[in-house]
Amino acid sequence: MTKNNQRPLRVCILSLLVMMHIISCGSGNSGNESYNINIEETVSGDYRYTEIELTLSGGGSTRPKSINDNGDIIGVGTHPAPSSCGCGSSLLKGFLYGGGIYTELQPPGWEYVGGVFAINEKGEVVGEGIVLDHYFNGKPSYTTKGFLYSGGLYTEIIPPGWESSSAQDINNKGDIVGTGDNKGFLYSDREYIEIIPPGWEYVGNISINNNGDIAGSGFDSNYTRKGGSRLSF
Fold first, then answer.
1. Buried b / exposed e across 38-70, counting CB within 10 Å, b at 16+?
2. Residue 165 and residue 178 in contact, taking contact as beta carbons nearer than 8 Å
3. Rounded average pLDDT over 79-102
4. Reported pTM
5. Alpha-carbon distance 37 to 175, whole Å?
């Protein structure tokens, strides 16, 4: 098998790394966070490896989750938490790194981002976060909601009447799938469709391709773990 016609493999690692040959350096500011980015490239045989070191001013670490064909990377990072929030020593925030620019992902007013899960070729990102819902006996009560980040704007993704949601995948058409309240959902053309196979009690993971085909997993009333798919609409 020849590798000469294969596309070079790019491995992107966003963490605190000790690097020997820095070929590019940059710095900037996103929101209240300043950051430094170092990039190192290494060639091994027919493959090129790119390491990206992203260092936040307040410390913490970063974890990449996904990358699209344009090289845009999404993930989450830990940030020191203010003592007033009562949420431990650190908070999670999402990030998008593309075109040499680092963008912090956190919907306005949300407490923190629990995860960013998918990015399509348009650079649209979906994930989930924690939102202050109400106070009970003087203590805050939180809920989990999904979000879409597109064109610099955030859209809350949660089916009407649901108590919680998580936006888990998005295709190039902008169709979004996710889970919540023990079920799955599809959000397409500004409409929500509930997804749960007959006889199932729970849907926990779900994904969608560019044809609109949906795959997921869950379990039935006997707690038998299952996987399934739903053909495109």
1. bbbeeeeeeeeebbbbbbbeeebebebbebbee
2. yes
3. 70
4. 0.75
5. 33
